[in-house]
Write a structure and sequence with these properties.
Alpha-Beta Plaits, five-stranded antiparallel β-sheet, 34% helix, alpha+beta, homodimer, 14 helices, 456 residues, Aminopeptidase
Chain lengths: 456, 456
């Protein structure tokens, strides 16, 4: 059986195996399982930091599994693992399904993991059916997507896309808080040394030129509440919102809390508090998000007004220009807030901005989106509701994913499935076996449809 | 010459030696000098943590100096050093002048140090004049007033007043940030072990019963801008404002910054920001102060909305009741702020309060205040202005001092002198030699006047 010889009805009837997918997924979670939150055997979170011992174990299992499925496996200089099921045409790039097997220190069983396991399930289904594709079909495990151990998210797909220099990635040092976890080394080490230590520093250059792809599809839990609260089954991801990460410093003046009237203070923390309140107002007014995740106040004494505060600011929005607008308005507003605090003594606060990361909005590829859209409608047709069309919606991703970087070089799109309470990066992160299987079936069809689009 | 035989005019003419006081003060600052801020030989801050090597050196010097001045020196279980110049009457308690020789990690040359050095200068002046007192005159160095190394301020005068249990004070562990300073031990140690290590664990019980005092006077830099900005020379301290220190925890929910709309968040840090802004408004409306010196947000990741925040809250006001009112209103307001954040998902933030320290307002003793008031007027009469009376004002202390605890057991009052920009707990803390000498002359007269009040 060959993809290009299937009828449209036959393509729409393709399904993956729900039980096998669930079984494989939880099997792979034996390496690095984390905090227990329920009584069931799989009721734990995950703690599988990139390039840890547990990450090595699941990588070894992934490679063995793919070899058993007759795939050719290669590993590049960033430890990205590419497993390709050959197609009929030998010299064309494969269509890839990919995500990541690493997790946050207190992560769950679905973020990233589902994306790779859905790929494995697609290959198993194709093998079972004896379904031949024109181009090959690959599954990729991208290294350190979370950025939890080595502090750049999606760093290895970034190197592959030649957006991040290899040396910069190799020299990343693991973050100290993570170094203290049992899964990490006792002393902070570089990403390159961690790759070497577990035997995953491959010899293939990490580049889209050395490991080309025809396209990249990724299934992922939504990590938000929209699908689950609307009882929808599939999100056809058309875009990823823009975001900018800043580090800000406010410089005021240390003074005694007991002897310094408000009008004599240049209280950097009070300025921060006003800025954070204002940031939400401004972002909301422009349909964007603004968040502070990290704040540090110095000197950090009960009876000293903090003279120095540093904090992170994460601005996100549907369009790059909207994020820039929020930034612009906040720069003006923050300057005004700083200037007012301490004005009474002629020593106002100052605020300084540093841009740490800039990710413009990403629009996924129309061809890929079409494949996912058609596949999603076909799969949800199984549901016992009158209007199955309403079970699918287009959606924008709020978070970054490896697909952001692949989309810079090859046609890409993503599929979201619902997760409980929209919760993610949390041990209780959960998606039902049904929803996981729906995601895998959609990506199976999408890959088949894309193969037909290429060669029909 | 005997105090009780002096005329009022003779008392008013008593002055200390400006040059000698300045010279002794800076001499004592050779032990533990800190950050340099100017070119002059004494243009440095101080870094003399309680019971450090440098603190031992200055204590040794203090004891030797007092013995050379024919004082009897005793050391109690908290390392408090009492040096008494005997009076004519052998069996009555001495009138004490006291403060502390320890400093903040980035402190200056005047806070505390001036108080002890003024005491030394008073004894030197009395010796030079051959002035006999009816009761003895003592100088006391209270241990760890700053609370910078062992985290309770005024802890040793607190034990002396039997307001703080001895065992609690002895078991205090030095704070970790301070432990990393060169002046402290390499591993955190207890106050008792630190006292033993430098040979200052005395055998006299630390109590007002074992070391009784007739009264306690303290001269101190203002640590605020009122005197200096009004060109006034002396503050007659009549009271110390009330304060309460709290530790608050806000419990929200960790979520992804990119995928969680504002209405789906229970952002503990956003709740904190609103609380801090509101705290200033409420405190100001009631003539009080509210300050946050410490804030910690967890988990502390750029792209995670913090689910947990803890912070310190320092509320101060002229009257105990005013502080209680601010606390009461803030409890209500903070609950409302917490309840609103996360209400959209039915999982609002919660806020919990813990009281760490409660210091009711202190009214100093009328007799002591009178002595200081008369002495201050007499000393500023030297000034070449028409209305010297206006150079003296009554003032309330915003900060705590050892005099807060002595006032619980014996008549007490304080004298403030101006400091540059009202700056304190800062290397550039500065008072002129003239102002220091004014403070010492005022305390000299106040002690003489108090002695006359007792025995005339």
């Amino acid at each position: 059986m060959l993809t290009t010889e299937l009828s449209e009805t036959e393509v729409s009837a393709l399904r993956t195996n729900k039980e096998r997918l669930a079984s494989d997924l939880h099997h792979s979670c034996q390496w690095g399982y984390g905090i227990r939150w329920g009584d069931g055997p799989t009721d734990t979170g995950m703690q599988r930091l990139a390039l840890s011992k547990d990450d090595k174990s699941v990588r070894d299992w992934f490679i063995q599994t793919m070899k058993d499925l007759k795939c050719n496996v290669t590993v590049d200089e960033m430890g990205n693992i590419f497993a390709v099921r050959p197609g009929r045409e030998a010299d064309v790039p494969a269509t890839f399904i990919g995500s990541h097997l690493d997790t946050q220190p207190t992560g769950g069983r679905y973020d990233g993991i589902l994306g790779v396991l859905a790929g494995i399930e697609v290959i198993k289904t194709m093998n079972d059916m004896g379904l031949e594709t024109e181009g090959g079909v690959g599954v990729v495990d991208w290294t350190n997507e979370e950025g939890a151990r080595f502090p750049i998210s999606m760093v290895s797909s970034g190197v592959w896309a030649e957006c991040i220099p290899l040396a910069h990635a190799h020299n990343l040092k693991e973050v100290p808080t993570v170094a203290s976890l049992p899964t990490a080394a006792s002393a902070p080490e570089t990403m390159k040394s961690a790759l070497q230590k577990i035997g995953y520093l491959g010899d293939i250059p990490c580049s889209y030129k050395s490991t080309p792809m025809a396209a990249h599809f990724e299934v992922h839990i939504e990590q938000g509440p929209y699908l689950v609260s609307a009882n929808q089954r599939v999100g056809v991801v058309t875009a990823v919102q823009a975001y900018r990460w800043f580090r800000l410093n406010i410089i005021g003046r240390d003074t005694h809390t007991g002897t310094t009237a408000f009008e004599h203070r240049a209280d950097a923390l009070y300025a921060f508090a006003q800025m954070m309140v204002r940031a939400r107002e401004v972002a909301a007014s422009k349909g964007c998000l603004a968040s502070v995740g990290i704040v540090e106040a110095k000197p950090g004494s009960v009876n000293t007004v903090p003279g120095q505060v540093s904090f992170s600011l994460d601005i996100r929005g549907p369009e790059t220009e909207q994020v820039a607008e929020v930034e612009k308005e906040l720069r003006t507003e923050f300057d005004a807030i700083a200037a007012a605090e301490g004005a009474g003594i002629g020593k106002p606060c100052r605020v300084e901005w540093t841009l740490d990361f800039d990710s413009p909005a990403v629009k996924f590829h129309e061809d890929c989106i079409d494949c996912v859209q058609q596949s999603a409608q076909a799969v949800v047709a199984d549901a016992s509701v009158a209007d199955t069309k309403s079970l699918v919606r287009t959606i924008m991703s709020g978070a970054g994913h490896d697909s952001v970087f692949t989309s810079k070089r090859v046609p890409t799109s993503m599929i979201f499935i619902p997760c409980k309470d929209g919760l993610s990066h949390h041990p209780e992160e959960f998606s039902t076996a049904d929803d996981c299987a729906t995601g895998a079936s959609v990506i199976l069809q999408a890959v088949v449809r894309y193969d037909r689009k290429r060669f029909l």
